Amino acid sequence: MANREKNKKTLLELAKLPENSCCADCGAADPDWASYTLGIFVCLNCSGTHRNLSTISRIKSIRLDFWDDELVQFMKSNGNRAAKNFYEKYVPVFYYQPQPDDCEVLREQWIRAKYERKEFTEEKTERPYTAGNPFHLFILFCVYEGMLWKKGKDNGQFLERKFVLSVHDFTLKYYKEDESKGPKATISVKGLNATFQPEKIGHAHGLQITYSVDDHTRNLFVYHKNGWEIVNWFNAIRAIRHVYLKTAFPTASDGDLIPWITRSYLKEGYMEKTGPLQREPFKKRWFILDSLDRKLLYFKTQLDAIELGVVFIGSENHGYSVRECVPKGTRGNKWKCGVIVETPDRQFVFMCEQERDQREWVEALKTVISKPMMPQDYTSKIITLLIRCANVAKHKWGVKKNNTLCPFQLKPISADGGEDRDWMAQ
Questions:
Q1: For the PH domain, which residue ranges apply (predicted)?
Q2: Helices (H), 178-329
Q3: Residues 244 and 260 sit within 8 Å (Cβ to Cβ)
Q4: In sequence order, what E strands does 112-198 have?
Q5: Which residues are 188's β-sheet partners?
Q6: Predicted confidence (pLDDT) per residue in 332-369, tens digit
Q7: How far apart are CA 90 and CA 200, in angstroms?
Q8: Residue 65, Cβ density class (10 Å: 0-12 exposed, 13-18 middle, ≥19 buried)
Q9: Chain mean position to CA 226
Q10: 194 pairs with which residues across the strands?
Q11: Which backbone phi and psi does 236 adopt, to 5 degrees?
C-alpha cells in the first residue's frame, strides 16, 4: 500500500530539482501540478489545458492528490528535462514559446503542438505556419494566406478580409471583397510587429499587428475564430520576420535577432497628458511603451489605427529621467497621480488614475531609461525629431481650414492645431 506522506515528500523534492522547478510549458516558477502520463511538472494555468487532453495527459496535484508508488516512480524516471529533449527537440528558432503571463490561446496551442500534434519531434516536419513546407523551402518561395477578421479603421466593425504573407518580397497584404482591384494595403515586413491583445480587442484570439507608414505607427486589429489558425498566423509572421532579419543582418546570431522578431509592449494603459506649456487642459490618452524602439506612443483610444504622437525615451546618460510628482497649477486633470518625464528638450507631465498605475509607469520608464542606447536607437531618435520638425512646419505654414493638407502632403490636421502641436513642440 502506498505511503501517502512519503510519496508527497518525494514529489515535492522532485519538483524542487532545477530541471523541474519551472513549469514544463510556460516556465512559471514552483509548479504544483504534474502530468502522470507525460511525466512533467506544470503550473495551475497550464494544467487546465492538459485536462482538455485527457487521452494524452492526466493531471494530479502534487500536494493534494493521492499518488500510487508506480506513478511516483514514473515521475522519477522522466521529468521536465526528458520531456523537453523529446517533445521540443526541433522547435524552430522563430516559434514563440509562451511565458507565464501570456494569453490562453498561445499557451493552449503550444501545449497541443507539443503533445497532441507532436510538431517538434522530427526535424523536417511540414508545419502549417510555413505553408505546409519544411522551413528551408518556406524561405525560398512561401506565400502564407488566409482569412482574418479585421477591425475597420474608423469604426468598431470587424469584417472578414484576405491576408497574404509573402517571403518573396517581404510583405503582408490584405484585400477587400474584390481582389481584382489589388490589395487594400501592402505592408513591409521590415517594421512589422504582432502581439496578442485579447482583452483590448475583445476576443480570445485577438492579434494586434503594428507597422510604420509615412513615419507614423499604424495598428491593425484582427482575430480568427479558430485558436490554432491565429497562432499559425502569429508564427508565420515570426517566420518571415526571422528570414528578413537574417537577410538584413547576416552576421547576427539568432540570439541577437530573436528579441526583434516580434515583441510585447512593456506597458500599456490610459494616462492624461497636457501640452508643452503645461497650461493646456489635460486629455485622456492610451499610451504604449515600446521598450525595444524606446518610444512612448499615445493614441486617442486603445483601438485607434494611427498614433497621435510619440515621445522618444533615451538613456539617463543622455539627459532622460522619470519621477513621480504632484504638479501644481495644472488644470483639467481628473487624475492626481503625476508622472514627469524629463528629456533634453522638454518636460512631459502625465497623470495616472491610481498610485499603482503611477508606480508601474515610473518603473517601466525607468527600465527603458536605464538601458544604454544602441546605434539603431540614434536613428529612431532622428526620425522622431524629423517628424516633429515637419509637423511644426505643418502647423506654421500648412493650416488654412479644417482638414487642410500642409504643403508637404502630411496627414490631415485640424485648424486648431490639434494635439500634434503639443508633442511636436518638445
A1: 141-242, 264-370
A2: 198-201, 227-248, 254-261
A3: no
A4: 143-151, 158-166, 171-175, 185-188, 193-196
A5: 171
A6: 678 989 999 999 988 999 999 999 999 999 999 999 99
A7: 33
A8: middle
A9: 20
A10: 209
A11: -65, -40
Please name which of 45, 239, 226, 220 lies closest in space to residue 130, comparing C-alpha atoms. Answer: 239
Q: Name the grid cell of 418.
A: 490639434
Q: Please report, as a single letter, which amino acid is at residue 148.
A: L
CA 187 – CA 210 distance, rounded (Å): 10
At 288, give phi and psi (nearest 5°). -130, 125
User: Which amino acid, 218?
Assistant: R
Angle formed by the axes of helices 104-111 and 227-248, to 10°? 90
Residue 56 CA to residue 326 CA, distance in Å, equals: 56
Which cell numbers hold the place of 278?
503645461
**Beta bridge mates, 295:** 290, 312
Q: Which bin fits 132, alpha (ψ -120 to 50), beta or left (φ > 0)?
A: left
Distance between CA 399 and CA 396 in Å, rounded? 7
Of 163, 80, 145, give the one whose Cα is nearest residue 115: 80
Tens digits of per-residue pLDDT, 215-259?
889 999 999 999 999 999 999 999 999 999 999 999 999 999 999
Q: Which residue from 74, 57, 72, 77 is spatially nearest to 4, judged by alpha carbons?
A: 72
Q: Which of 121, 116, 239 is nearest to 170 (CA)?
A: 239
User: What cell does 279 get?
Assistant: 497650461
Distance CA 161, CA 177 (A): 7
- Determine if residue 342 is left, alpha or beta; phi over 0 gives left, psi from -120 to 50 gives alpha, anything else beta: beta
- Cα–Cα distance, 149 to 169 (Å, whole number): 24
- When the pLDDT of each residue in the chain is averaged and rounded to a whole number, the result is 86
- Residue 136's CB is within 10 A of a number of other CB atoms, namely 9
d(CA 408, CA 267): 33
Cell of 409: 502632403
Residues written for the chain? 426
Question: In this structure, what C-alpha cell is assigned to residue 377?
Answer: 536607437
